[in-house]
Amino acid sequence: MALKIRLARAGAKKRPYYKIVVADSRMPRDGRFIEQVGRYDPLRAKDDETRVTMDLEKVGEWMKKGAQPTDRVARFLGAAGVIEWKHGDNPNKGKPGAKAQERAQERADKEEARKAAEEEAKNAPAEEAEAPSEDAEAPKDVDADAEADTDGKTDEPVEETSETGEAPVEGAAGEEEKQAG
């Protein structure tokens, strides 16, 4: 039988009061216990001597029989000087699970990809800065061709085309309003 020295909750709603009991570890928290060895009242002041009271002789006997204290009870026993209590002795408690580690790895991969993209973006503007100077000459040539065409002709209106290459339609604005409404 696996024995534990643990807390069993008692008291009313919003007024907790705990019994320090020796119980089978398979029993429910507030269920059947073997023996009550103390009590704990968390509503009392921390420096109050009656906040935690234990029969240390009984606790010692049960520990000799193999009963293991829970973390909270071990802290109380450490304060009483019965055992040496070591804070944070569970190294695996703070480690994330397998799925959390996978998500962290995915985030790290995305971060590396983002940084690589930023580096490429920093290098790309230097190349693009050279390219617009070549492109800037091309529109001037187009404007010169347009001026040459208009000089030889009389006042004919030139139809402008949109970026898609379609001629503007007079009724198109009305159709868009019908679709939106």
Walkthrough of the structure:
The protein has 181 residues and is of the alpha+beta class. The chain folds into two domains: 3-80, Ribosomal protein S16 (S16 Ribosomal Protein, Chain: A, 2-Layer Sandwich); 96-148. 46% of the residues lie in helices and 15% in strands. The chain has helices spanning 56-64, 71-80, 98-152, 172-180, and strands at residues 3-10, 17-24, 35-40, 52-54, 68-69. It has a five-stranded mixed beta sheet with strand order 4-3-2-1-5. The longest helix has 55 residues, at 98-152.
Task: Please specify the SSE layout and strand pairing.
Layout: E1 3-10, E2 17-24, E3 35-40, E4 52-54, H1 56-64, E5 68-69, H2 71-80, H3 98-152, H4 172-180
Parallel strand pairs: 1-5
Antiparallel strand pairs: 1-2, 2-3, 3-4
**Apparent shape:** elongated
| CATH H-tier superfamily of the largest domain | Ribosomal protein S16
By oligomeric state, this entry counts as single chain
On the 0-100 scale, what is the average pLDDT? 78
Highest-level CATH class of the largest domain = Alpha Beta
- In the CATH hierarchy, the third-tier topology of the largest domain is known as S16 Ribosomal Protein, Chain: A
Number of helices: 4
CATH architecture of the largest domain: 2-Layer Sandwich
How much of the sequence is in beta strands?
5-15%
> How many β-strand runs?
5
Computed over alpha carbons, the radius of gyration is: 40 Å
pLDDT < 50 runs, ≥5 residues: none
Largest sheet: 5 strands, mixed
Helix-strand sequence: EEEEHEHHH
Find the structural class using helix and strand composition.
alpha+beta
In whole angstroms, the N-to-C terminal distance is 76 Å
Number of domains: 2
Helical content, roughly?
40-55%
Strand order of the largest sheet: 4-3-2-1-5
